Amino acid sequence: MTEIVPHAEELLPPDPGGDASSVTGVVKPSYDPRLANEDLVPLEKQTWGSYNIFAFWMSDVHSVGGYITAGSLFMLGLNSWQVLVSLLIGIGIVHFFCNLVAKPSQVTGVPYPVICRSVFGVRGANIPAVIRGLIAVAWYGIQTYLASAALEVALLKLFPGLMPYANVQEYGLLGLPLLGWACFTVLWILQAAVFWTGMESIRKFIDFCGPAVYVVMFLLTGYLLHRAGWDSIDLNLGEVQHTGMQAVPVMLGAIALVVSYFSGPMLNFGDFSRYGRTFAAVKRGNFLGLPVNFLVFSILVVVTASLTVPVFGELIIDPVQTVARIDSTLAIVLGALTFTIATIGINIVANFISPAFDFSNVSPQRISWRAGGMIAAVGSVLITPWNLYNSPDVIHYTLETLGAFIGPLFGVLIADYYLVRRQEVDVDDLFTMSTAGSYWYSKGFNPPAVVATVVGAAVAMVPVLWTTGPGMKGAAPYTWFIGMALGFAVHAVLSRRR
Fold this sequence. Notes:
Blueprint: H1 50-61, H2 64-73, H3 80-108, H4 112-115, H5 117-120, H6 126-158, E1 172-173, E2 176-177, H7 178-196, H8 199-228, H9 247-267, H10 270-273, H11 279-312, H12 319-324, H13 329-351, H14 353-362, H15 369-382, H16 385-389, H17 392-420, H18 447-465, H19 472-475, H20 479-497
Antiparallel strand pairs: 1-2
Helix pairs in contact: 1-8, 1-11, 1-13, 2-9, 2-11, 3-9, 3-11, 6-7, 6-13, 6-14, 6-15, 6-17, 7-15, 8-11, 8-13, 9-17, 14-15, 17-18, 17-20, 18-20
């Protein structure tokens, strides 16, 4: 097993002056070119400290989608303390599992699809890679659309004459108005440009995004407090409808919502933990970025949302719309641009880098990390994400299907690394097609892992597809848990028998 020697100071900032080449590896002559390129092999240097991991989670949480998700938890008809308990349990589960999935990639220095070769086989690893990559493409498009909507708000405030071009009936194409297309295109190009500069530039970008949103959030909260007063704060955004034991199912649903929201970046967190100096640094960053950060952010969200009622006369849980109501062009522009940048941050870390590694893993000789990312970027336009986002039914099925497929992949990975292999990985064998290699299995595929994934996903999809079945509606929000538990159990049993 490859061991990474801990550095003396885990919280030191990354090496100054680093560039993209400083976070790649060297392809050994013994590595099969069908499995290796400099982006997939073990890193030469692991430079990220705890703050970088903390900033990664801030970028992941501090977005328009994260704001609305946190706010929606306080509208479930629960007492505020019940919501906070549900939130802490949910984010605690995410924190625990992120530490589990982080270790194999941090120790070996390889990204998620490569560590999956030890689980699924050197060829079979393309199964989880393609599944995760396609999911990321869809969400990359949706997040880009959300960011473009924030930019559109700022432009309309600055240039009211553009209003006709924001009307899809007058100037529309494929369901998006001309101004929407312009904003979407600008952000699409901007994200691609940031991505193209390499991981070191991306690290610097996300180091900025998360804190920037906190500054705007505190300023926005201060503005609303000045207008409404401290007495207007109400942590219950809706009427309390569930008390006693009746609240338990609703709280469980809230917990499942939190876990499902983070299920994507949680699965491929190894793509980032591989850059951590030590596993201890990664764990510290996870603690600051998940339980601590998410709790503070959620409280800010509910305080801000509750203050919109006395200030604007209605409850607003979309931060962009809240900023748009302020009687200051400068405030609106700065707020909208900040949330735009924040959404770009989450999009790059959660939905750009992942498919870049995943698609590169399919054919390392032909598809570099950058080429993999651009495949995802092009695909995100072709699916017309604004049409997906504007359909509640599509979003509903997308979230539940996401959990149904990601859950088993997560369960199989954890069962294999911690139970089957006892945290032992032969790094060099991850890059060989030799039939004598540890991860050749059966023609490059590991049958127990494949079977466990199929069983877990198939069973988890039942409540998604059979909505009228007995108890199916209540089981649908828990597709991630169902798939994860089945994937974990089936793989552990089949592997031990094998």
